[in-house]
UniProtKB/TrEMBL annotation:
<dbReference type="InterPro" id="IPR039422">
    <property type="entry name" value="MarR/SlyA-like"/>
</dbReference>
<dbReference type="InterPro" id="IPR036388">
    <property type="entry name" value="WH-like_DNA-bd_sf"/>
</dbReference>
<dbReference type="InterPro" id="IPR036390">
    <property type="entry name" value="WH_DNA-bd_sf"/>
</dbReference>
<dbReference type="Pfam" id="PF12802">
    <property type="entry name" value="MarR_2"/>
</dbReference>
<feature type="domain" description="HTH marR-type">
    <location>
        <begin position="13"/>
        <end position="154"/>
    </location>
</feature>
<dbReference type="InterPro" id="IPR000835">
    <property type="entry name" value="HTH_MarR-typ"/>
</dbReference>
<protein>
    <submittedName>
        <fullName>MarR family winged helix-turn-helix transcriptional regulator</fullName>
    </submittedName>
</protein>
Length: 164
């Protein structure tokens, strides 16, 4: 059951919307990934970077497995595109295919040692960029923002899941 859209504008929600639109635009332009490639001198496809993030993030369930289908779902691409992206990550040596622990006929994905090293490098780079963006924020503001951002993204994910 969906709620009717309020005719009265909520300034806080307008700020959230404006911020999310700006963030989405930056994400769509892959600004942070392009910056990492340029500043770190990486020889990696931006699609591979996205695949590595999905594989490292893991499944939603504690015993869940990472599959090409999950990569497709999280990246919002069709399964054939996800399969090509995963193949590129495998060819680069960052991801490997392994037999499922629950069904040996099924293939799952995991990071190689090189994939873990790459992700560690990316975490340090991204966090350094976020620290630069928040350099004039207090520790309390950073903590609150992190907590609220995680809360928002969890709520948003659930809202979108219910809306399907």
């Amino acid at each position: 059951m969906s709620r009717p859209v309020s005719k009265k504008s909520d300034p806080a929600l307008a700020d959230v919307e404006r911020g999310m639109v700006r963030l989405r635009r930056s994400m769509a332009n892959r600004t942070l990934g392009k910056l990492a490639v340029r500043e770190l001198g990486l020889d990696v496809d931006l699609g591979t970077m996205a695949v590595l993030d999905v594989v490292q993030e893991g499944a939603d369930e504690p015993d869940g497995e990472i599959t090409v289908g999950l990569v497709a779902e999280r990246l919002g691409v069709d399964p054939s595109r996800a399969s090509r992206m995963v193949a590129t990550a495998i060819d680069a040596g960052y991801v490997e295919r392994v037999a499922s622990q629950s069904d040996g006929r099924r293939i799952t994905l995991r990071l190689t040692e090189s994939g873990h090293q790459f992700e560690d490098t990316m975490h340090r780079f991204r966090q350094a960029q976020f620290a630069r963006a928040m350099e004039d924020w207090s520790d309390r503001e950073r903590e609150q923002f992190g907590r609220l951002l995680l809360k928002f993204t969890a709520s948003w994910r659930e809202t979108m899941r219910r809306g399907k």
